[in-house]
Design a protein that fits this description.
Layout: E1 8-12, E2 18-22, H1 68-76, E3 122-124, E4 133-135, H2 138-141, E5 172-174, H3 184-191, E6 196-198, H4 202-206, E7 232-233, H5 243-248, H6 278-281, E8 289-290, H7 292-295, H8 320-326
Length: 328
C-alpha cells in the first residue's frame, strides 16, 4: 500500500500487542482518514487467531480479504447499514427522496455492464487516446488510506495523466457531513445525491481517464462544439440555451420523477463556478454549468452509459434533461 507520508504514533499497551494509530485530523465529510482510519477494519495482524476475514487467508498486506474489491464491498454491499451501499438495488436512500448516492451504484463485480463502470473486468476505456485497457478496482479511484480530496479520490486514477485534485470544501461542498464513527442515519443523509453541491474540477478529474473530453473542441457554426461542452455557463452567448427556463424550471423537461411514464425529470445536477459553500453551490442561476455528472453517475445506475435518465430508448423522459436547458 502507498506510503501516505503522514505521522504515525506507536502506542504500546501492557499486552504484547502493537497498535498503529493515525494521528491527524479528519477532514469534514470523509472517512477512512484521520481518526476514521481504523486499521482493524481492513487488516488482521494474525489471520489464524480469531478469524474474521475471508476464508483462505492470510493475504498480502495483512488484508482480511484476498482482493481490494472484495475487501471494500464486504462493507459497501448493503450488508453494513452504516456504510454507503454501492450495489443495486440500493435501498438505503428510499425514504430520502433520492434514488441513490451522488455516485450511483455498480451492477456487480467481475461482470461487464453497459450501465456502470465495471469492477474487476478489463475493459477498453472509452473516449481515450491512446487506447487503454484497464481493470478497475475500488482503489483505482479512491485512496484506501485517505487524502485531502472529496471522497478520498486519487488525483490521477489511470496513473498517466497530470493529476487533478477535487477538494472537499473548495471544489465540492456537502450540506451534512457523515458521522464519525459512521451511523446509519448519518450515512444516508450525507451520501444521498442531493446533499452534494459542485463548483469545479470534477470534469477534469473524469478526463484523467477519458482525456478526449479534456477540452471543449470548437465546431463549425452553428454547432459551436464538436461534443456537448462541460464547464460552460448556460448564459454564454450563442449556446442555444434558454437560461430563463432553466431558472424557472417551467419547461416540459422538468418533472417529479425519472421513469414514471411522464415526460420530465428532476432538475439535473449542475455546478456553479462562483460557489463558496453548499448553499451557493445549490443555487439555481443562469450562470450554472453542465458538467460530467449532470448526465452521468460515477459508479453507474439503471441506464446505459451511466446516464441519469433513459437516454437512447423510447421513453417519455428521453429528451427531458435536454429540454431543461434548451427548451426546443
Amino acid at each position: 500500500m502507498r506510503n501516505q507520508n503522514s505521522r504515525w504514533a506507536i502506542i504500546l499497551t501492557q499486552a504484547p500487542i502493537v497498535v498503529l494509530m493515525w494521528v491527524v485530523g479528519v477532514p469534514a465529510g470523509e472517512y477512512h482518514i484521520g481518526s476514521g482510519l481504523v486499521c482493524a477494519q481492513c487488516h488482521i495482524l494474525h489471520y489464524g487467531e480469531g478469524g474474521g476475514g475471508e476464508p483462505g487467508g492470510p493475504f498480502p498486506y495483512l488484508l482480511s480479504h484476498s482482493t481490494i474489491n472484495g475487501l471494500c464491498l464486504s462493507c459497501h454491499d448493503g450488508s453494513d447499514p452504516t456504510a454507503p451501499d454501492v450495489f443495486a438495488a440500493v435501498s438505503m436512500y428510499d425514504a430520502t427522496g433520492d434514488e441513490h448516492s451522488a455516485a450511483g451504484y455498480f451492477a456487480g463485480t467481475d461482470v461487464s455492464s453497459d450501465s456502470a463502470h465495471d469492477l474487476g473486468v478489463t475493459d477498453l476505456v472509452p473516449l481515450r487516446t491512446p487506447s487503454t485497457n484497464i481493470a478497475l478496482s475500488c482503489a483505482s479511484c479512491h485512496d484506501v488510506h485517505g487524502n485531502g480530496n472529496y471522497r478520498n479520490l486519487v488525483s490521477d486514477p489511470d496513473s498517466s495523466g497530470s493529476g487533478t485534485n477535487v477538494v472537499l470544501g473548495t471544489d465540492i461542498f456537502e450540506g451534512v457531513a457523515p458521522a464519525v464513527p459512521p451511523t446509519q442515519e448519518g450515512s444516508v443523509a450525507a451520501y444521498k445525491s442531493s446533499n452534494v453541491g459542485y463548483r469545479s474540477n470534477l470534469s477534469y478529474w473524469c478526463a484523467e481517464c477519458h482525456n478526449l473530453l479534456e477540452t471543449n473542441e470548437d465546431g463549425v457554426t452553428p454547432a459551436h462544439y464538436k461534443r456537448h461542452p462541460s464547464d460552460v455557463s448556460l448564459d454564454v452567448a450563442g449556446s442555444h440555451t434558454d437560461p430563463s427556463t432553466w431558472v424557472a424550471g417551467d419547461s416540459l423537461g422538468f418533472g417529479a420523477a425519472t421513469g414514471d411514464g411522464l415526460e420530465g425529470v428532476p432538475r439535473v445536477r449542475f455546478q456553479e463556478a462562483t460557489a463558496t459553500d453548499y448553499s451557493s453551490a445549490k443555487t439555481v442561476a443562469s450562470t450554472n454549468q453542465v458538467f460530467c455528472t449532470s448526465c452521468h453517475l460515477a459508479h453507474g445506475g439503471k441506464y446505459v452509459s451511466c446516464a441519469v435518465w433513459p437516454y437512447k430508448v423510447l421513453d417519455p423522459d428521453m429528451y427531458s434533461p435536454c429540454q431543461q436547458c434548451h427548451n426546443q
